Amino acid sequence: MAASEGTTAFRTCHLCEATCGLELRLEGGKIAHVRGDDDDVFSRGFICPKGAALGRLEDDPDRVRWPLVRRGDTWHRVSWDDAFAEVDKGLSPILAEHGRDAVAVYLGNPNAHNLAGMVYGRVLLQALGSGNVYSASTVDQMPKQVSAGLMFGGGLSIPVPDVDRTDYLLVLGADPMTSNGSLMTAPDIPRRLRALRERGGKLVVVDPRRSKTAEVADEHHFVVPGTDAHLLFAMIATLFDEGLASPGPHVSPHLRGLDEVRALARDFAPEVVAPVCGIDARTIRRLARELAAAPSAAVYGRIGTCTQEHGTLASWLVDVLNVLTGNLDRPGGAMFASPAASAPGSAAEGRGRGVRFGRRKSRVRGQPERFGELPVVCLAEEIETPGEGRVRALVTLAGNPVLSNPDSARLDRAIASLDFVVSVDIYRNETTCHANVLLPAEPELARGHYDIALYSLAIRNVANYSPPLATLGPDEYPEWRTLLRLAAIVAGQGAGANVDVLDDFVVATLVQKAVSRTGSNVEGRDSAELLQALASRRGPERVLDLLLRTGPHGDAFGAVPDGLSLDVLLAHPHGIDLGPLEPRLPALLRTPSGAIELAPEAIVADVERLRASLGRRRDGLVLVGRRALRSNNSWMHNLPFLVSGRSRCTVHVSTLDAARLGIGDGQSVRVRSRTGEVVLNAEVTDAVMPGVVSIPHGWGHDAPGAALRVAAEHAGVNSNLLADTELFDPLSGNAVLNGIPVEVTPLGARNA
């Protein structure tokens, strides 16, 4: 139902992982003003510039609002039926002649913020049945998912810092003051970190840059990019050497592999590691002792620890350190969320099938899949290399791989060479400009919102649903129906399939799983009864209601009178606070052993690669990324409000390196890697350590076919032109985006 004119409405922001509550003033069917929702149970009025720009995003004149078909270099507006007919005409012959793997799918990270994408994106993937599935995960967090899967049995069983109760927080390769949290849903991180220090706690940051978070920390230590795993192992070695390793009685009965980790750590003494990571042995030992001695503590690693050559090892060691200091799964430590819209596992409590990788491999390089995805470093070669199984078509869902993936110039050429591309997106960007058919999502105000994925990583258990605030216009079409119509096409049902029948089938399947699942709160119930109770809704809201009612806080369709349902959330527009995180072990575990696998076989085998790197000394400069509060990857650069002011797409060069290379502040420089080069202005600063340069990611808006006028005026450069598809973490397939060897050369005189 549309909100009345001149009214106030409430909504959860979908523009980053913080899930902040917004108070919207609606006038004339548009967002006239945005402020933080003071009564939101999680964010308590906090808002960042991205949330404040929501109205501008809705009204952006470059936003695609109806289906477009490209013929040559010309774009044509068409009806929805004609657009889907064009998709059927383009994809179906390829599938018939070349098979399912000939059509690849790329999912961008906006899907994690999108109820329709979370529910029906999977339906599309299942209908297509292609082995060529790629996503932003393998340029982001896949190492953490792999390590969590091997240790705890599930890819989203990721411990998050209990920030509000911890006494000591060690942050590696993360800048939550800028990102608002990442794999850690935590609105108003500035207030939470201030509160940590005000109650006598300590914040320590380890990062090759002095980030915004490092600026407010008690301590900041520069670390050589790509050596976080070395540092963490040295801290673990200290705990064992000094008798400080103490997992605690709540975790010890559920551990396997403690002695194996002890043996592995012997080769990583602080004195051995210090020359490699750039942090002296005395400091390493002190940090380990402080962690062990703190009343409560948590170690948190993020993008910098994931997008490096030892990403999975670093991600694993973060949680090993949490275990050994007795801080896993206890208040103030690293804990597991209990999201409302999640179903319990089908296995017996504390035991499951675990995770399996490599059920299939990429055609060209033989890289194994993880969680159903192939590494995105393989995508270009799967398109370019002739032979059986070659990728000939691509479906992109809210993704811009041309900007976000390594060796972008090569990937750009590869995508341009495809026989057919269909994109679901709100912009004609650097990737979707190659689409033959571009299908837009409906306006944000016309869709419901619930953060299924992000609440799985929240530092407090909450639930908040945002209903649609506007009705669909005559040319607007809900994204969930778009995804189901695409699913019908690739399943061979044609462009005119009945979406409602497909939706009914999806829900019936989910209900049957719920009543058949051991441990479900509706186990053994009549499926028809549950379907009837859900019948008043359709689309993602119907699925969400099912997930809420069968989740850990659900009403079990009336069996738990004070439990959650979608109707309950609708009656609470500021959300429902379900309380602080609580211990979840051993019930959360889904490993075959029913234990925390502290030394998984695959990870132990990779330690030899880390050990071999101890003798390596780095020469020259290496590149790391950075982000800005007003930016979220490449999403937000077409809004004047967010890109105004001085350019943020510069290369940070340390004062010492600038003097050595003859680079002045503001001078134009060339940055070159094995795969490409970019030219941009230098910022000479002490905020990066010597030997390191930093360029933000998500820029480079100069593609001739894109239609992003504001972004083009602030184009910047694409740092992923410098990233190398040959550099990746072998355990996860994740691209290496931090620690890339580069050369920096000054060009001409300093700019005014």
What topology emerges from the helices and strands here?
Layout: E1 7-12, E2 21-27, E3 30-36, H1 49-52, H2 54-59, E4 68-71, E5 74-77, H3 80-98, E6 103-107, H4 115-128, E7 133-135, H5 142-152, E8 160-161, E9 168-172, H6 176-179, H7 189-198, E10 202-206, H8 212-215, E11 219-221, H9 228-241, E12 255-256, H10 258-265, H11 270-277, H12 281-293, E13 298-301, H13 303-306, H14 311-324, E14 334-335, H15 379-384, E15 393-397, H16 401-404, H17 408-416, E16 420-424, E17 437-439, E18 460-463, H18 479-490, H19 499-516, H20 527-533, H21 540-550, H22 566-570, E19 576-580, E20 596-597, H23 601-612, E21 621-624, H24 640-643, E22 651-654, H25 655-661, E23 667-672, E24 677-685, E25 692-694, H26 709-713, E26 740-750
Parallel strand pairs: 6-7, 6-15, 9-10, 9-13, 10-11, 12-20, 15-16, 16-17, 21-25, 22-24
Antiparallel strand pairs: 1-2, 2-3, 4-5, 4-17, 8-14, 18-19, 21-26, 22-25, 23-24, 23-26
Please explain how this structure is put together.
- This protein has 752 residues and is an alpha/beta fold.
- The protein has 4 domains: 1-59, 2-Layer Sandwich (Phosphorylase Kinase, domain 1), CATH 3.30.200.210; 68-141 and 356-439, Rossmann fold, CATH 3.40.50; 142-339, Dimethylsulfoxide Reductase, domain 2, CATH 3.40.228; 618-750, Barwin-like endoglucanases (Beta Barrel), CATH 2.40.40.20.
- It is built from 26 helices and 26 strands.
- The strands form 7 sheets. It has a 7-stranded mixed beta sheet, covered by helices on one side.
- A hairpin with a 4-residue loop joins β23 and β24.
- α4 runs parallel beside α18 (479-490), α9 (228-241) crosses α12 (281-293) and α9 (228-241) packs parallel to α14 (311-324).
- It is globular, with a radius of gyration of 25 Å.
- The mean pLDDT is 96.
